[in-house]
């Protein structure tokens, strides 16, 4: 944790001027945003389920107090501080800037490739139940048998994102991972991974509309800095003519897994004959490690927040936390190798 704290402090020092603009010089003294962000970083790293539980940990956990920057006898702030300050941090897009500064640290240590990447997406279960997924045309529904927790029978009812919407989280959409799988209210989270060390190079969160994976991939590919040719690894879901064409138009080689089931693949021998294609297909599997960490450790399996903007903020911050842990492990391994 010392290495993570040191990297986080370097980043927060670079954000200090931005924090100064966000907070007024008059009025009651506020909680330093540096402490709030360190606390949120702990929440991701230690899989703390809620801010309330995080505050309970800060009461007695000396490691947490040291990491956040609280003295042993210093009182812990109220949990509503997160609610009131989250909107301020959200408007300033602090998570994105924090993530970008983490990337700069990785680049300074020469840990990132600028030529070979992988894209992939995953469904994030929204903080909303299926009972909240109701018709948007104002059609009358039967009276509830229980006002607090009514019984809802979905059998025989056609429910889609075109006719229904969640009253709890309107941005969440009904989606499922594959044929025969259960449909859930979800968001679609995406990452662009560099292939050298498996670090997250970019993130995007979109509504789970069915084409979000390819849409987000094109957005992230377009934002890759520089004008040098790059390679993009991906699974079979990206094997479409439109995606392959758009990727090549952006000076990127789509090294996508071939999908020959019932149709002709958009990837032919011009791509598969090169040794780099096989390497890219091997490397792209590491992107599942990122999603696995973010869902199990980072708490993104079942979202705790609502709204596309806030979910995107938390997903970006979790990706930054993953990179910090990965950079620490790589730096430690490199130092051991040199010794």
DSSP strand tally: 8
* H-E order: HHHHHHHEEEEEEHEHEHHHH
Largest sheet: 6 strands, mixed
Mean pLDDT: 88
So what's the overall shape?
flat
Computed Rg: 22 Å
- Structural class comes to alpha/beta
What does this entry look like structurally?
Helices cover 45% and strands 14% of the residues. It is an alpha/beta fold and 339 residues long. The strands form 2 sheets. Strands 1, 4, 5, 6, 7 and 8 form a 6-stranded mixed sheet that branches. Strands 2-3 form a two-stranded antiparallel ribbon. A hairpin with an 8-residue loop joins β4 and β5. α1 crosses α7 and α7 runs parallel beside α13. The radius of gyration is 22 Å and the shape is flat. The mean pLDDT is 88.
Key phrases:
alpha/beta; 6-stranded mixed sheet; two-stranded antiparallel sheet
Give a short summary of the structure:
The protein is α/β, with parallel strands linked by helices and 339 residues long. It has helices at residues 2-14, 16-22, 33-45, 51-60, 62-68, 80-91, 94-108, 212-222, 241-249, 269-272, 275-283, 287-296, 308-338; strands at residues 116-125, 133-135, 164-166, 173-175, 184-194, 200-207, 230-234, 252-256.
Per-chain topology:
Elements: H1 2-14, H2 16-22, H3 33-45, H4 51-60, H5 62-68, H6 80-91, H7 94-108, E1 116-125, E2 133-135, E3 164-166, E4 173-175, E5 184-194, E6 200-207, H8 212-222, E7 230-234, H9 241-249, E8 252-256, H10 269-272, H11 275-283, H12 287-296, H13 308-338
